Amino acid sequence: MDAPTGPGPATRGTPSVAWVWRSLAAVSVAVSAVVHLVLWSDGYRDLDVVGPLFLLNAVGGFALAVLLVVWRHWLPLVGGIAFGALTLLAFVASGTVGFFDVSGPLMFGRNETIAAVAEVLAVVASTVALLREPSR
Fold this sequence. Notes:
4 helices; mainly alpha; single chain
C-alpha cells in the first residue's frame, strides 16, 4: 500500500504565513521602540519616572524585536502582545487619568500616532502569528 500523496492533517497554518505575521510583529515592536527612544531624547528623559520608562521601553522593544525573529518559540509572541497592549494602555492612561507625572488630553501628533498604530499592529500580528504557527 502506497503512502497517501494528498495533503496531510490540517495544521494551524504554514510556517511561511506565520513567519510573515511574526516578522510584522517584530517590525511593529521595533517601530514603537524607535518612537520611544526619539521621544526620550526629545525631552522625556527629564521626567522622573516616565523618562526611564521610555528608555526601558525602547531597549526592551529592540530586544523583543530581535527575539521575535530569532527565537521561534511562542514566548516572544506573548511578549509582543503584552508589549503592544501595555504600552498602548500607558499612553491612554497618560492622556485620561494620568500616568505618573504625565497627564492631560490625549495628544495625537506624528510620533504618538506612529507609536499607537505600531502597538496595535504588534498585538494583532503577534496574536495571529501565535494562532497560525504549527504547534511543536
